Each structure stands twice: as C-alpha cells, then as structure tokens.
Amino acid sequence: MSTQLFTTAIAGSLPKPAWLSETNKLWPQWKAEGDELKQAKLDATLLWIKAQEDAGLDVIGDGEQSRQHFVHGFLEQVEGIDFEHKVKMGIRDNRYDAMVPQVVATLRLRCRVHAAEARLLRAHTKKKIKFTLPGPMTIVDTVADQFYGDRVKLAMEFAELLNQEALALQADGVDIIQFDEPAFNVYMKDAADWGVKALERAAQGLSCTTAVHICYGYGIKANDDWKKTLGDEWRQYEQILPALAKSSIQQVSLECYHSHVPPHLMALLEGKDVMVGVIDVASDVVETPEQIADTIGEALKYVPKNRLVACTNCGMAPMDRTIALKKLQALGLGAALARERFR
Ligand code: ZN
Question: Which entry of 74, 115, 182, 289 is 20 to 30 Å from 189 by CA?
C-alpha cells in the first residue's frame, strides 16, 4: 500500500523499437547479435523508463525489452532446456500453436537471467520498480516436457529456479516481483489445486512486494477468437481468486476494462492490493482519462481505495509503439483524474 491513491503501473511488456527487433509480433526476431544486441536491449529499456516517467507512472518496469517472449526469455538461461530442437505444441489448452523448447534433463539455472536490465532500471529511476517473471504453471504450459513426466513436479522445479532469480532481483533493488500466470485462467482447477502452491514456492523468502498477473492474454487474434467463446460473463477468476486470497502473494493484477469479467469478482480478493486493468491491450483505441477514471470508479465498489492500483489489462508487447505510448500517457492522466474525483 502506498500513500498516494491509485498508483499506476504497467502489467509488464511494452513494444520493442523497430531497431531492436521485428515489431507487432509475440516472438520477434532480434535485429542484432552478441554485444551489439546486449547494448540495444539496454538502450530500449532506458527509452521506456523515460517514457513511463514522462507519463507520470508510479511503478516503473523494464518493459521486457531484453526477452524475446515473456516465458522463453527466462528459459534461455536454464540448463536442461533444448532450444535447438523446438517442437510445435498447442498451448493454453490448445488455443494456439507455438514452437516451444523441450525439457530434456535436470533443470538448473546457468547464471543470472535478468541482472543487467534490473540493475539498469534501478540505476535510472528513483521510483518503485517492478520486475516480471513467468509463473511456474504458465512455464509448464509453454515447454514440451520430455524428462520429468509430471506437470506438478516440473512446476515445482521451475518454482525453485524462479525463486533463485527472484531473490537475486530483490538484492538488485527491485521493489515488486510479479509472476505472470495467464494459465491460471485456463486450468482453473489445477491452479487452485497446485498452481498457487507453486507460485508461493517461487515467491518464498521474498521480503519485497509480491504480485501475480492473471489475464486473458495479449491482443492477438487467437486470444480474441477464444474470448468470443467464453460467453457474456467470464467467471474464470471466480474459481482461482479465493485460493489466491488465502495465499501469501500480496498483489493481484486482473483484466477489467472491456473484459466480460463481472467486476464484483474483485471482492473475492479481500486483503490484497488489486491491480485493476483500466487499459485494453487488445484495442488500438486510446482510452480517455474519463473512461479510465470511470473504470476506477466501478472497481472502487469492490476494492478499497487504498488497495487499488491502476494498471494495463495485460502486456503491450505486440502493439504499435506509438499507440502503446499514448496508452501510457492516458493511464497517467486517468489516474490523476480519479484522484480528484474520488479523494
Ligand atoms: Zn497478461
């Protein structure tokens, strides 16, 4: 909790500049390699730190400029993963196909994964910084396992590796560590049975703020098509939020604006900070500050005002860069308007 009402944050990813990688893609190809690529990633991170600060955001992230994809970026530094022989696999309960690496041996972290960008972030802003990692259950759903043969065991192995990196990120000065678990909205029963437990293992021993992001995915066609099959009321959160409310995780990031989630489900998160999605990442239409303040007002019926963080529905990686920038600005202005309206 913070003293200022309605602090603002992004869910995680931001578009990569065209000089860094292909644009408007979920798995873009880099445009440089070796040391040049390393430097380009940090340059892009610095650019987005400045853009978030200029937009008046309160919690600053790295925009995930250093990773090709939010899950595979972490896996690149894990021993026991074969990236040479990727296989095609239906992910998120076969919603769409992805080329995924394979688990072929005992898993171990090769080295630090995100030290460079986390330290750069810490060095260049005085604001709170948030760092995102994929959640264990979502990782399990985005790799082909040829070794462990058990999803729960595999999730716990990944949770331990995530925990090592999370503790190191905390030592780098990160204030909030967020795990991204879109798979929770797909495998609700598994999420409640063991997903939350794996998540808590990943966050074990952290004294910084912990968070989880659960969404209906990026604004890509496969997700848009899937959402059309979910009916008028999306009630997935109803099955997982009670388990999260009982967990040690302190903040929960959810979709709100333009989603068909009944807003009253947010009341299930009593005792947690709620990062309310007030920016639609599946639409190029930029929200007005009034619309954002309205969404905050709706959420305030179910979330105490000192626990509400205004956020984006999901990451913005596949978006057009100029639109994403305008949405960041709208987020800053909308939260400022809400502070006047609801003080
Ligand atoms: Zn998301």
Answer: 74
